[in-house]
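Why do we care about 3D structure at all? Because function follows from shape, and shape follows, mostly, from sequence. That is the central idea of this module. The next example makes it concrete: a single protein chain, its amino acid sequence, and then its structure expressed as tokens.
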Amino acid sequence: MAAISGLIRVMERAARKAGGRLRRDFGEVEHLQVSRKGPADFVSKADIRAERTLYDELLAARPGWGFVMEEAGVIEGDPGMPRWIVDPLDGTSNFLHGIPHFAISIAAQEPRADGKGWGDVVAGVVYQPITDQTFWAEKSRGAWLQDARLRVSARSRLADALVATGVPFFGHGDFAEWSRIFGAIGPEVAGIRRFGAASLDLAYVAQGRFDGFWESGLSDWDTAAGCLLVREAGGFVSDFRGRSEPIHSGQVLAANDALHSKLHKLLAGALR
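And the structure:
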């Protein structure tokens, strides 16, 4: 096993602290279903509390770093310092409906050497509070689940592949595009799953549970840690055009080497 760095320990400690509170809040959700407004309002507050915990913990550990956060937005850090990319509750709808499949996602991103914008994501943690599982990766140091090394699946035939996706809201502009892609990929693969938390979908690709994943309309905090996990597990990640910087495009296609090219061909054909 690779030695866990101080950076990953900081990220995991923050995720576990926020995750403990989310576990307790999740246990209360089922009692709120009698109220039309109650559950959604409660979950929104749980999301904000988790983000505040993550902010406080990460800021204390790395003063001067900036933040990109789902609720609070961009918080600038000191010039030349890295920044955190944080999703305090990926899988909000699952949480709201009492489905125990959601995660906290934290990534660390370095500034570019020339000072113009942002460079590589160098570390990522995806923490599942209900199962108490920590997926983590560091650039050039591999991807891990706890102390077990992760590898993408070795499947090379589309007919054997189980692929995950996220479904846009019906009527949204991306839904027609998603439908075309689904129509192209669906008949060629063993199955398609929609679990509702992109960070965990990507972690499962890194683990080899899923053989591939695609989704559009994503934000940096949905994908920054998960994309690093896939790459460090030996997989390939791109946007829908095949470019290698998907976290800024909102589009992600992830799979192993053999399947990525085949899925991209089907996806690109659907978008012509």
